[in-house]
# Entry
Amino acid sequence: MNLVFLGPPGSGKGTQAARLAAERHLVHLSTGDVLREAVKLGTELGKQAESFMKKGELVPDNLIIGLIEDRIKRGALREGFILDGFPRTIPQAESLKEMLEKHSIALSKAILFDVEDEEVVRRLSGRWYCPPCNAGYNYPAQMPQSDGVCDQDMTPLKRRPDDEESVVRNRLEVYKKQTEPIIGFYRQESILTKINAQQSPDAVFQSLLKEVA
Ligand SMILES: [Zn+2]
# Structure
C-alpha cells in the first residue's frame, strides 16, 4: 500500500501518518525525515542536500525525488509507504509519478485530510508551549490548570510565531495556492479519497483504517 497524505497545516495528517505506519508496517516518509536520514548516512545525494540546507536554501525537487528513489532501490519501501508533506506542487507530483513508474510502483491512494479553515485557525492558534520545559498545551482541549502558565513550573506560556492567527491564515493561503491543484491532479488519477479530519483524532484514524482496509 503506497499512500500520499494531503491536507492543510493543523489537519493532523502527520500524527495520523505515524499511527497508520506503525499499525500497518508502512514507512512514514516526511520530507524532513528523508532529508535528515540521507544527511546522516552521508550518501552522495545526502551531501548535496546538506549543502542546500546549510545555506538555508530549499532542497530542489529532483533531489528529494532522488532521495525517495534511493530508499526504493535499497528495498526500504517494499512493504509500502506514506508520503507526508510531499508532493506539494504539480511539478513535484508529476516527477514523483514518473520516478515511481520507472520502478513499476503505483500510488494506491491520495488521502485528503479535509478540515475547514476556521477549524485550522482554532487548532493552531490554540497551541501554546512553555519555553523552558517545552510542555505543550492546547486551548480549549488541554488547558493548563491556571490560565496562561505552565503546570510544571508556572512559566508564562508562549505561542510559536507560526501559530499566531494572522500567520496561520497566511499559511492556509499558501497551502491553497500551492497544494490545492494537487488535489485535482490525484482526482484525475482516480486515486483521491477525502477523510473528514474535523473529527477527533481517534475517529479520524478509524475512517483512515476503513479507507486502507
Ligand atoms: Zn514549563
